[in-house]
Design goal:
CATH superfamily of the largest domain: Hydantoin permease
Keywords: Membrane, Transmembrane, Transmembrane helix
Protein name: Purine-cytosine permease family protein
Number of strands: 8
Organism: Pseudonocardia aurantiaca
CATH topology of the largest domain: Hydantoin permease
Distance between the termini: 27 Å
Number of domains: 2
InterPro entries: CodB (IPR030191)
Radius of gyration: 24 Å
Length: 537
């Protein structure tokens, strides 16, 4: 190999075939850095040099904490099962979400992979596209809901047609999400976090001063009759399983955390501490407010209107901070995963900035069409797909935690099209969950996602026991990883895009004389076909 040289020297392969030497460097390519400022390596492995400190990672990820969803869903649940059962369910959700995200965040940081890249190890090259599409749509639909809440708040304070505020909110979301996490979103959320924290406390204090304090909220009994097939706390816990999508969000954010911070980030930034505040504290505030404020309806829009009516401009500022924070995450996740999906499925390689505008246009159109009930139904069914992904991913991570780097093979030329074990576990468990939800029975409301998750774990574990090596990797010669000293520090120049990326993602292209090729360029059809042919001969 050679360093910092683009000549035509060659090295001899083990098969006796002369292949081009690698153009290797030990520093970041300026062109790649400029691209990463927008895209955050959304189609590549995140190098160790592009990682955030634990404090900055916490600020960037705090965007997810601010969604009014966390306040409203606990409030509504308490009316169905009572305050005590609701709080038990919230605690259970904190423990499970915190524990699972601890595992997921550590794996994301150690591999530097996106959800899309990591999913190739679970389901194969083609199968992984489903995960990126599902997550892209999740981010977009959540952007619709949180954006509409902000629009309702603005209309409640200033009046005017709701369509105008939909447009304003969408424009703001696009402008804030164009910058990547490392360059921009961390700074935005650092500014908004104090406003959110002060606003949350102020809402509780203000409502108490205005309407008085009554400790009866702590022992309130169910007020809304809802059929369920289990204890109230399990019903509440199952509601929070519907947002297991947060664990996929975690993966896409945590890949930018430093490896030396994995324990801190796992426990606090993404894990138990985060969910203590996000689920339990936000939830307790919601339960208190629903028993204190005179609300017309228990919904995100209803609670927002109640807060703005109570606090005026101060309430609007609080709502703007909360919804802006969460929508930076929604727009980012939606755009990054649309970019990944269309790159893989159709070979359409566009900058993440373009997909930010796509997310904005789609979310605005959905708000204008007022099809929120349809989106709610979509998310219910899609929740089974994502809950199943989490179960399969956890089994795979635990089973292969002591394996070498190739345990998480993701390179397009070195993974099979489909992993039969992972795909089967995903389809069967998700299918059962979708069937249960479609039945609209009490069992479905309490057990559908629980059964989906447990089934995905069991099927995935069985598939791993019966698996073959070829399910996870295509074995081909001339692996660039074997030709460098340090796969994380050495950068190799791609012969297709002429940019240098860390060696851990690089491959050789048998369709072009074994020239080096990066993970993004390797999604091309000719490379993929040549790689598969080479592996099967």
């Amino acid at each position: 190999m050679m360093r910092g040289d683009t000549g035509d020297s060659v090295v001899s392969s083990t098969a006796g075939t002369d292949i081009p030497a690698l153009d290797v460097s030990d520093h970041d390519d300026p062109a790649v850095i400029a691209e990463a400022a927008r895209d955050d390596y959304s189609l590549h492995v995140v190098p160790r040099s592009w990682r955030l400190s634990s404090s900055k990672m916490a600020l960037a990820w705090s965007s997810v904490m601010a969604a009014m969803f966390w306040v409203v869903v606990a409030a509504g649940a308490s009316l169905v099962v009572g305050t005590r059962q609701a709080l038990i369910g919230l605690v259970a959700a904190v423990v499970v979400h915190g524990g699972f995200c601890y595992v997921v965040s550590r794996t994301a940081a150690s591999t530097g992979l996106t959800v899309g890249l990591f999913s190739r190890a679970l389901f194969g090259y083609r199968g992984a596209a489903i995960a990126t599409l599902a997550l892209a749509l999740t981010g977009t639909w959540f952007a619709v809901f949180e954006g509409s809440v902000l629009a309702v708040a603005a209309q409640a304070q200033f009046g005017g047609p709701i369509q105008l505020w939909y447009a304003v909110v969408t424009a703001c979301g696009i402008s804030l999400a164009i910058g990547g996490v490392r360059v921009w979103l961390e700074k935005v959320n650092a500014f908004l976090l104090p406003i959110f924290a002060v606003g949350l406390v102020a809402t509780v204090v203000w409502s108490t001063v205005e309407y008085g304090y009554n400790s009866a909220w702590l022992t309130a009994e169910p007020q809304t009759a809802t059929p369920m097939a289990g204890p109230g706390w399990l019903f509440v816990f199952a509601i929070y399983m519907g947002v297991f999508s947060n664990m996929l969000y975690t993966f896409d954010f945590a890949r930018m955390g430093r490896v030396q911070d994995t324990r801190t980030n796992g426990l606090h930034t993404f894990g138990f501490t985060f969910y203590f505040f996000t689920i339990l504290v936000n939830g307790a505030v919601g339960i208190y407010l629903v028993h204190t404020l005179p609300l017309q309806e228990v919904s995100e829009a209803g609670l927002v209107q109640g807060i703005v009516k109570l606090m005026g401009v101060a309430g609007l500022i609080f709502i703007v901070a909360t919804q802006t924070k969460i929508n930076t995450a929604n727009f980012y996740i939606g755009s990054a995963n649309f970019q990944s999906f269309f790159s893989r499925a159709f070979g359409l390689n566009l900058a993440r900035t373009v997909w930010v505008f796509v997310v904005g246009v789609v979310s605005f159109a959905v708000m204008i069409m007022n099809i929120f009930s349809f989106i709610n139904t979509w998310l219910a069914y899609q929740g089974t797909i994502l809950a199943s992904w989490v179960g399969i991913a956890l089994v795979f991570i635990v089973a292969r935690r002591r394996a070498d780097l190739n345990a998480f093979e993701f390179r397009p030329g070195r993974v099979p099209s489909l992993n039969p074990g992972g795909i089967t576990a995903w389809i069967v468990s998700s299918g059962v969950g979708i069937y249960l939800i479609a039945s609209n029975s009490p069992i479905a409301s309490t057990w559908a996602l629980v059964i989906t998750f447990v089934l995905s774990v069991l099927l995935s574990a069985v598939s791993l026991l019966a698996s073959k090596d070829k399910w996870f990797a295509l074995y081909r010669p001339h692996d660039p990883r074997d030709e460098v000293t340090d796969v994380w520090n050495d950068r190799i120049r791609c012969n297709s895009c002429h940019k240098s990326y860390v060696a851990v993602e690089m491959d050789r292209d048998p369709s072009r004389g074994y020239q080096p090729i990066c993970a993004s360029c390797a999604t091309g059809h000719s490379f993929r076909a040549a790689a598969v042919a080479e592996a099967t001969t």
